[in-house]
Amino acid sequence: MRFRLPGWLIDDFLRKAVALALAIMIWLSVSSKLEYPEVTLPNVPVNVHLDSTVMVLRKPAPTVEVTLSGSNKSLGKLSSQDITLEVHLPSNIHEGVYYYTVGLTSKVNVRRRPSGTKVVAIRPDRIELEIDRLVSKRGVKVNVVTAGALKDGYRVVQTAVEPSEITLRGPSRKLLDIKAVDTEPILLNDTVVQTFEESAKLVLADPDIQGPDSVRVSVMVDRPSVSRTLHGIDLALLVAPGGGLRLEGVLPEITITLRGPKAVLDAFSELSATPFLDVNAITSPGRYRRPVQVWLERQGEVVVESITPAQVEVTLVPLAGAPPAPPVAPAPVEAAP
Questions:
Q1: 308 vs 54, more confident
Q2: pLDDT one-digit tens code per residue, 38-52
Q3: Within the chain, what is the greatest distance between any pair of CA atoms?
């Protein structure tokens, strides 16, 4: 079955087609001149797209006003969230360029708008973006920070960190004045009595600046020592019980110089250090030279720096009423071992 056009349409078809075309043109001309209502949306955000591996936006992009036109139905209940503006920054912006101006047009930058509406104007139509290039800065020193205090008599002699210098990455302007970064505080308290090591995080004040997660910190703890000299201490003589010998004459007074923690030495007295001569092994009368030894009350914390005199010569004679010693050759004066 063949389809046939109605006779009234075929009759004088050319004239009717021209009339229809003229009618459409007239309608388009009139509709373009009709005034539609307009609505201005304030504080419309501008989404900035950039290569985050080489660039950062130092401040959020400014907002703009967007004016829309359309029917009353299309413009009803609009908000700034109903339209989306986007800007794409090139990644080849030179280092040292901190401000970049972008023009805004409805054709290029409007990515979303309500159906049945048209963007009439964007104000301002140019915005300035504050940008910065991401760079690496080498040779940034690391400072060790401590908190708290050691117990009396102890001190931190030295701190060390590995690595002592690091590389930071971030916006060039933010890195410009950074010469060093601090560690998080290393805690010191009464329980710390010796050198120790631990990991410490770095304090990076700006989240845009990146660096190592942590460093290795060494804290050298020491107990400072001082010297103290005790004068006029009596010298004791250790003789073998029942050996039948006694000292002839008087033993000299001794001067002892000690070294140790100040708090310990401040509590030291003449009774805390006892110098003595050990002649236990001698069984025959005679003259002998022996080294002066010292017994200390706190042997592990205090050491003897010097003894004056360091050696003493003594004369041993038989005790009265003691059986005579077997004859021996005259005993020479012995030097200290």
A1: 308
A2: 888 899 999 998 888
A3: 173
What is d(CA 99, CA 77) in angstroms, rounded to the nearest whole number? 36
Residue 193 has phi, psi (to 5 degrees) of -130, 5
Check residue 131 and give its pLDDT.
86
From residue 302, give the alpha-carbon distance in Å to each of 107, 152, 225, 272, 285.
Answer: 88, 16, 9, 11, 36
**Amino acid (one-letter) located at 216:** R
- Residue (of 164, 156, 225, 230) closest to 187 by Cα position: 156
**Residues 6 or more apart whose Cβ sits within 8 Å of residue 86:** 46, 47, 48, 49, 109, 111
- Map out the domains of the chain with their CATH numbers: 36-133 (2.170.120.30), 144-222 (2.170.120), 225-318 (2.170.120.30)
- Output the six-digit token pair for 233: 């201490």
Dig out the tokens for 138 from the structure.
Answer: 């080498």
Instruction: Indicate if the pLDDT at residue 147 is higher than 90.
Output: yes
- Residue count of the chain: 337
Residues contacting residue 222 through CB under 8 Å, at least 6 positions apart: 154, 155, 157
How many helices and strands in the chain, by DSSP H and E?
A: 6, 25
- Note if the bond before 124 is cis, omega within 30 degrees: yes
Sorting pLDDT into bands at 50, 70 and 90, what band is 215?
Answer: very high
The pLDDT assigned to 4 comes to 63
Using CA atoms, how far residue 226 sits from 122, 168, 296, 310, in Å, is 80, 44, 16, 21
Say how far apart CA 227 and CA 151 lie, in whole Å: 20
Confidence (pLDDT) at 65: 92
pLDDT tens, residue by residue, 298-318:
777 788 999 999 999 999 998
